[in-house]
Amino acid sequence: MLDYLIKNAMVVDGTGKAAYQAHVGVKGDRIAAIIADETLPEAKKVIEAEGQLLTPGFIDVHSHADVSLPVYPGGDNSIMQGVTTFVGGNCGMGVAPAYNEEFSRFYVLGQLQMKGYLNICWKSFGEWLDYVRSFPIGPNYAPLVGHNAIRGSVMGLDYNRVATDEELEKINSLLKEALDAGAFGMSYSSDPGFAGHCADLRELKILFKLLEERGSYVTAHTRHHQNQWPSDDGRHYYGVYVGEPGDVLCGRYHGLLEFMELFKETPKLTACYSHLTNAFLAPMPHSQAMENAMLDETMCMFVDEPAAKGYKIYFNVLPHQNSLSGIRKVVYDLSLSLAYDKEFKNYTEADILVNSLKDQSFREKLKVYIKSGKFKMNMISPATDPYWADCFTFFTAKDESLLNKTLMDVTKERTDGPTAEMVYTNCLDVLFDLIVEDPDLEWALTCDKREYMATDRLLSNRRGMPMTDSPSFPEKSDKWLSPMDYGNPPLSYTAMIRYLVDVCREGKVISTEEAIRRITTQAAEMVGIAERGYIGEGMKADLVLMDWEKLNYVIDFNNPSTPPTGIRYVFVNGNVALEEGRLTHVLSGEVLTKQSIQKVYD
Ligand SMILES: [Zn+2]
Ligand SMILES: [Zn+2]
After folding, report:
1. Which of 257, 297, 333, 466 has the fewest CB atoms lying closer than 10 Å?
2. Which residues, 6+ apart, have CB-to-CB distance to 131 below 8 Å?
3. What are 276-289's pLDDT values in tens digits?
4. Domains of the chain and CATH, by start
5. How remote is the CA of residue 188 from the centroid of ligand 1, in Å?
6. What is the pLDDT of residues 517-558, one digit of tens each?
7. Residues less than 5 Å from ion ligand 2, measured at CB
């Protein structure tokens, strides 16, 4: 007898093949039967699914849910959007191994801001996985080992330099140890700040070689992706990088080039660009036609050309138009980028900064700094995006007339003058006034111009996959809750749904079958996840049943955990994790480990 029989569903099996009508049976943790005819086996529960889509559970190839999993083991935000397996440890940011106590404390509690961790009770990568196995989790967790943790385990807090020969050997052996424990591959980040930043090409080549030998996978948060500006201070928040001024504009391109040059030396390695964006940074405003041309060239140069030569190359994309961060204090965003600058590091305490902003000469100095290219407001550099003030919307304010307005809206209300003056000067004066008037003022980055014009175009490429780039969050969370201190973004609950609705159903950029293929079989193949991502007899029963026409999402920064609509059932390992749109809180996820892969579908 079957446990579940899903009757008359339109099956989108994950391979890209046309949807077909069938009855799908689940027994234990497996898909036990796919039946076309009328004689149906008995089942403990029958789910009528006429007119609804049954797909494999989604695989989120770029997640940070592992980091907050010990705090929010349910991974509710994943399940709510149909994600049954997340690939954790991206951007070099896994929390294991943890051999150097001082580094781990600094890194996990400090850099990753995981205040929920009181006790880092693992050392090796295997011990971390055993620890996660010791409590029930919602989605399946496919682990990558983060290069930061490996490097910090070997070099401690003295990681802002090139490794010695002896250290390199240890770094290599810790990667080996993690792969032996079941890691699917390695992620690394070359952006300033984290321990991976100062790894030289020799180190990366050695690690890439080992990954290639193991038939493994590498994914890169490429250099200058986030931080294009030069820093002249050794203790800069984002690291010690002393950049070339030209990289304020060409940095992203150089970062992508660096990764491509690296993976081309290891042709059997599967490689993935993390959160690919336009390689060519053109200041806003610019036309969509120009954006499209640059995106096409980005994909041609970094993806299609190496793919045509046989490299196993993929990329993932943030399917959003707003932000990875939620509501934050304005003064916090302002102080973040000041913290490690020689001139401003003593002004980062909120009280001191607010007081200093009453002084015109301080304001003038700060303006010069903000325009220098070294400063970022949250994720946006005013030097490369002069129209940044369009991107921030106020959500909490003493003066209610500010609510739901952008900084530019308020600037236009309060000042006169030609647009260019508003953009370059007035908006800063207005911002400083607002902070002085209301130090608790809060806003969110509601329009991330780095990506919002690019998502559809990037995802038109068959090697592109959407992802959440998100930690694990609970089902109901207020706007202030954040495991990682950057606010709670609606994106964390909606990324996959936004992709399906905006890119596929409404945008018609790709077909339904192709949209599902990207986040199922293609994701599983890229990472090396066996037995999942495909609806076939004998496969693990990770499934999503949805009402395609009702599928939708809401971006509400005040209520970031507003659930998507249209997702009816989610099965994880044959258990119902979401029923009629509601979480059951049955936690049946598993820690997956890399096994030799056998493709069982065509
Ligand atoms: Zn990243
Ligand atoms: Zn990431």
Report:
1. 297
2. 70, 121, 122
3. 999 998 888 888 89
4. 2-56+538-583 (2.30.40.10), 59-324+450-527 (3.20.20.140), 328-445 (no CATH)
5. 9
6. 999 999 999 999 999 999 999 999 999 999 999 999 999 998
7. 90-91, 469
